[in-house]
């Protein structure tokens, strides 16, 4: 018991040591990708000058966090790439798609040209895609519609053209579509109505056409529709838009819409309605709009009839614009009198209609402006105050929301400034903009905004000072100044590094909660004054710091050394208790086990065959030990697998395992020739496979890529070998580690399955004779090939091997690795398959191929890789399908690859009840081989 615990603790310490030691290692492929991304950019300010070492974080006066990493699988991966407001030009390199663990991609407010790389669709972890404020052109890639974790897409203020891809209907987690101010064209896809979480749909200032999809009313979470300045070809506003129970803002200004205004009285929280500059006709619906509404703009249409009486009871109304219509009748003064709110102004625009009189008082409160110029009533000279031609224009002024002007004169040298409580400190300067506010006058909401923003940033209101300015859209631009907190005379005049990074990450990560009233916001810049110039460059990585890293390494070493000594003493004590002198030489003849066709080699024979196990004879290395190429005394070339310390078994277990393997005979399994169990050694002797592993020939470095027919031959041979293990072996075996490196190729490129070191035999019948459908085991195998169901439940079945073989089939057709830079081959092929672009990912090195055959194999592979084991075919069914595909191949193609028929003339059959009931044997870790020729592979990290 104590020994077991010691080992557990020891391995845990070594795990910490290795994890800590690898913490500083950035994924080499991503480093190369970052360099190519940098090469595609032009940086006049030289803010990226230090990027040559793979770390683009350098100082810059407007730069936000540009580089952040996360630790996955022993490597650091880029998690954030934020290079906003750096005056960068150039293009976005397709290599950006290699950053497979990235969550935030931010190139806002630069001068980038070219198109958006479709490879961004490979970054399945991406949450924020922020490319607004550039000069990007070209269409939106369909591939962006398959980003399963995307929360926000901001590509506004570019020159992007073409349609909105229908694939965007797959973005089930996306809340924000900000695609305004581009040149998008075509119909708004009705399929977008499937998006369960969409909150903001901003498509204003584009070239969209067609009709307004009524289906948008089905969006369950939609708060804002902003489609101004498009051309919907004289279509009507769907009546169904009146059913949007959560809608806060509907803005359809200048969209060439006709017909009546729909009844919107069923929208309880509507704040803002702008249907101006269309061709809407008939009368204004009589049913009352939301009590909360602040803005109604129906100007520049063809409306007729009178002003509905309920406008007088809308107490929060700031602006009512009905100008340039054909409305008539009397204007009631109750619209502007007795308002129950503290707005700085109420604006009523009624110019150029057919109103003939005003009922009630003609005395205007000081905060009210009424414009009636161009109506018949203006012929009455007593109403001159209502008939001025000038309007109200304060949209371009810069207004202080709060001020420090009252601070007494004292020394506060730049770049330090006074906060609102007269504290001289260095602020953080933030350019901030409300993209779709729900009001026309901001002043009544100043206190509410201060509370909203300071609460979202977790700061005090006295730390915030700002000015605001209306811009076209309408949008509200703000210049925020955020000051350090003043507590007493000893308070710091600057923020510390962690607080700067925290506040910055709140803005750049869009962590400030959205507000119904203030709408979506955007970050225009984040300016660091001189006191903060070293904040970003000093420490940018989110991984473990240098001090912590050293501490972990030293602590782990001390832990490992101490526990190693304890465990060693315990082992020696246990051994001494049971020690009996024995000969150092063990002979296999002690245990009599019949092994037909398998020879017991002496240590001397195998040492002679490998030139005393010289390094020049070594051809591979795996978890079991080293593999050597040797020439036996009869001239046979063999692969000799020599167990390393820690892989040795008990003598009985070792020989029993060999006895099992000696009974496995199939042309698609690597043959066991013999073994050695003496001189403290355990070795296995296999037939040598001169063409190495399948993975060798799929790699980009392979000099002679495999043709399609050879790949199909390898697939069929592999499947036949595994089907034999499942159905014909006595007892049946589940391989458990099917992968491309365990499929070896002989001189004729025939496939042979190897390495049963992780194998487990089929389930044992219980006392009632019932055979379970699985074997419960500790999960072992190779990431990327591992059956997800087996990983979750620890239940190994024959379908676990089917899943792994499915991954191999995908490798054969695409040349891709199962897992590479965050991309999983099953997921990537599924996306391409569903998108109808499957041939774009087929291995170009394969040469010509029959497309219908490739489609059949891909379909079969994806069935094998189904998450649900019951939906996968049996291995014999995989063989049958591959044989059918092979039979359709032209003779000229199949002849070149040689015969692939089984040694047995009878076809493979499904297992009978008798074969399934054979007494199984649990295999250990001694059989199989990493029988590869050529270079020694590196050991895969955890």
Write up what this structure looks like.
- This protein has 942 residues and is α/β, with parallel strands linked by helices.
- Among the domains are: 2-20 and 545-573; 413-538, 2-Layer Sandwich (Alpha-Beta Plaits), CATH 3.30.70.150; 597-687, Phosphorylase Kinase, domain 1 (2-Layer Sandwich), CATH 3.30.200.20; 694-916, Orthogonal Bundle (Transferase(Phosphotransferase), domain 1).
- The protein is built from 17 helices and 45 strands.
- A 14-stranded mixed beta sheet has the order 2-3-5-6-7-9-11-13-14-16-18-20-22-24, with no helix packed on it.
- A hairpin with a 3-residue loop joins strand 33 (618-621) and strand 34.
- Helix 10 runs antiparallel to helix 15, helix 12 runs antiparallel to helix 14 (851-864) and helix 14 (851-864) packs antiparallel against helix 15.
- The two termini are 27 Å apart.
List keywords for this structure.
942 residues, alpha/beta, Alpha-Beta Plaits, Phosphorylase Kinase, domain 1, 14-stranded mixed beta sheet, 6-stranded mixed beta sheet, 18% strand, disordered C terminus
SSE diagram, text form:
Elements: H1 2-22, H2 28-39, E1 41-42, E2 67-72, E3 75-82, E4 89-90, E5 104-106, E6 128-130, E7 152-154, E8 161-162, E9 176-178, E10 183-187, E11 200-202, E12 207-209, E13 224-226, E14 249-251, E15 258-259, E16 272-274, E17 279-283, E18 295-297, E19 302-304, E20 319-321, E21 328-332, E22 346-349, E23 354-359, E24 368-371, E25 399-400, E26 417-418, E27 424-425, E28 428-434, H3 446-457, E29 464-471, E30 475-482, H4 497-508, E31 521-527, H5 535-538, H6 546-577, E32 599-600, H7 603-609, E33 618-621, E34 625-631, E35 637-643, H8 651-661, E36 672-676, E37 683-687, H9 694-698, H10 708-727, E38 733-734, E39 743-745, E40 751-753, E41 760-761, E42 775-776, H11 788-793, E43 795-796, H12 798-814, E44 819-820, E45 823-824, H13 825-835, H14 851-864, H15 875-887, H16 891-895, H17 913-916
Parallel strand pairs: 3-5, 5-6, 6-7, 7-9, 8-10, 9-11, 10-12, 11-13, 13-14, 14-16, 15-17, 16-18, 17-19, 18-20, 20-22, 21-23, 22-24, 32-36
Antiparallel strand pairs: 1-4, 2-3, 25-29, 26-27, 28-30, 28-31, 29-30, 33-34, 34-35, 35-37, 36-37, 38-41, 39-40, 42-43, 44-45
Helix pairs in contact: 1-6, 10-12, 10-15, 12-14, 14-15
